Amino acid sequence: MKFTTTAVLVAAAAAGVAADAVAPWIITSLSSGERDNLCQRQIQTCQNNCGGPDKAPMAFCNSKTMAWGCGCKEKTPDFQTWDWPVPAADCGGSAATCKSNCNAASGDRNQCFINCSNTHKCNTEDAPVSYTSTSDIDTAPKYVGPAVSYNGKQLGDLNDGNDRSKLDSSNSDSESDGESGADKAVTSGAAAALKTTVLAAAAAVAAAFAF
Q1: Distance CA 27, CA 145 (A)
Q2: Helices (DSSP H) in the chain: which residue ranges?
Q3: How many angstroms separate the Cα of 69 from the Cα of each of 95, 114, 139?
Q4: 94: closest CA among 140, 25, 156?
Q5: How many angstroms separate the CA atoms of 45 and 65, rounded?
Q6: How confident is the model at residue 165 (pLDDT cuts 50, 70, 90)?
Q7: Which whole-number Å values give the CA distances from 84 to 62, 105, 113, 133, in the listed order?
Q8: How many angstroms separate the CA atoms of 70 and 166, rounded?
Q9: How far apart are CA 106 and CA 147, in angstroms?
Q10: Phi, psi of 154 (to 5 degrees)
Q11: DUF7707 domain spans which residues (predicted)?
Q12: What is residue 108's predicted lDDT score, i.e. its pLDDT?
């Protein structure tokens, strides 16, 4: 998949504009066609995981905001969060932007590329949390949150143009309550992204009585 950020980088270079003018990564920067296709795959994956469209009352994806969710009528979705189409694409876009910024920066580009690979282990529990899941189709995603992985690791700078310094510091400046900075980040970040399944499961129970 060709991401919009790559196209912007090429255009900037052709125009003689500084390459660091590439916009920060956000999944809504994908073209409308890419977003439509991604949402179709997201909904279909949820429906398949639930056992069919009639068993997936909470399968949704907003192609404008890329808010998504999945909830089954008869089970809790058992698809790993980092493997859902939208979070996977969000990670891929962030990784592509990271590498584009390596090309624009001075210094050791090879090390920069290595850092991008280390912080963007997409489709694994080490991938950066995607802040795109919501409780309903009309709620806009958070998009940018602390740079933590799904297993709670602090990832440092994702180099995708988004300033997370205040977000990271607010989640790691104190451990007085016995909770580590990474745990706090997961509580406010990863858990927020993962809670869709829990909310959807509760909604599915209620929905089951309506069918």
Answers
A1: 13
A2: 4-14, 32-50, 85-104, 109-119, 165-172, 181-185, 191-208
A3: 23, 32, 11
A4: 25
A5: 19
A6: confident
A7: 15, 32, 25, 10
A8: 31
A9: 23
A10: -75, 130
A11: 29-125
A12: 86
CA distances from 51 to 4, 7, 22, 61, 158 (A): 34, 38, 42, 18, 36
- Higher-pLDDT residue of 167 and 61 is 61
Whole-model pTM: value is 0.72
Contact status, residue 146 vs residue 167, Cβ threshold 8 Å: yes
DSSP of 15-68 = TT--GGGPPPP-GGGS-HHHHHHHHHHHHHHHHHHHTSGGG-TT-EE-TTT--E
- Cα–Cα distance, 136 to 171 (Å, whole number): 26
- 118 burial level (CB within 10 Å; 0-12, 13-18, 19+): exposed
Residue of 135, 139, 157, 159 whose CA lies nearest to 148? 157
Residue type, 48: N
Residue 25 — φ and ψ, nearest 5°?
-70, 135
